Amino acid sequence: MNRRQFLAASAALLAARPGFAQEGPFRTKYYPISPGIGLHDLTPAPDGTIWFTAQGKGLLGSLDPRDGRFKTVSLGQGAAPHGVTVGPDGAPWITEGGQNAIARVDPADLKVTLFRLPEKFASANLNTGVFDRDGTYWFTGQSGYYGRLSPKTGEINVFKAPKGVGPYGITVTPKGDVWYASLGGSHIAKIDRAGGNATVVEPPTPNQGSRRVWSDSRGRIWVSEWNSGHVSVHDPADGSWKTWKLPGERPRAYAVYVDDKDKVWLTDFSANAIVRFDPATEKFNVFASDKANANVRQLDGRPGELWGCESGNDRIVMIQTIAAG
């Protein structure tokens, strides 16, 4: 689908669904990766590289958006990587569930270093990770755990989640607070970085399936709710919540990302689309994929660009978020 066809299709979709808004033009570009590679998460690096995990093949990959070329490195036998983020050292750090370890890949020579969890947490089911302001790496395990890794010493501490199974997405606020979402537990939680305890905060919608979280510039926690199809925001400053249902029939909100303008981006499996929400106007933009079953599992970005992994099509998608004109 070319750009003109894409805009026409989007306009038709918006006309059919009152309440949608479309600003533009936004530029959308797709980067095909190897079929069957099993894309999952990604993150942009300061040098322009896009790092991605290929869960289906146990690989970490790097994409050069300038020419679409990519290269991959094996993370080891039995690897099944999930999340990836770039650390203060400029290297990608990966939650490597297949080997029950946190993996670091040297961006220069692609050397893989593993930090394995203690044996008693062998079934942690690692999901996502984030660095706090002190350079500590925090991670989640969907089997009912979260933890921290000190890159300087290699020490790992693992904690049992207060409500058991479910820890999934994780984020850090501008002040340095760390929050995670529990998909199975339908809540979010704030971690005491000193002691390691987590305080549960319940969203207003019961059994909503909080899947991923992202902080905005004010330290508010945005939540994608898989079961309810809502996007919610919690303000820790006053304890308040606001909730909006994504447009369309039976939305399934998977990923959430807040850009540098505090616009909120989500993925909706039911609509086969990436959705943009403007908190100021409470309007949604919908960017439908040009292929069926896109299943974008994670979003990240940098100023002017939104990036996502189409796990169903093994493509990386970029939406330019600055309107041309």
From TrEMBL:
Keyword hit for Glycoprotein: no
GO MF, any single term: lyase activity
Top-level lineage group: Bacteria
Nucleotide-binding among keywords: no
EC annotation from Swiss-Prot or TrEMBL: 4.2.99.-
Cited Pfam families: Vgb_lyase (PF24684)
Keywords: Antibiotic resistance, Lyase, Magnesium, Metal-binding, Signal
InterPro entries: Vgb, Vgb_bact, WD40/YVTN_repeat-like_dom_sf
Cofactor(s) listed: Mg(2+)
Signal sequence interval, chain numbering: 1-21
Family to which this protein belongs: Belongs to the Vgb family.
Function text: Inactivates the type B streptogramin antibiotics by linearizing the lactone ring at the ester linkage, generating a free phenylglycine carboxylate and converting the threonyl moiety into 2-amino-butenoic acid.
Complex and partners: Monomer.
Name by which UniProt lists this protein: Virginiamycin B lyase
Species: Bradyrhizobium yuanmingense
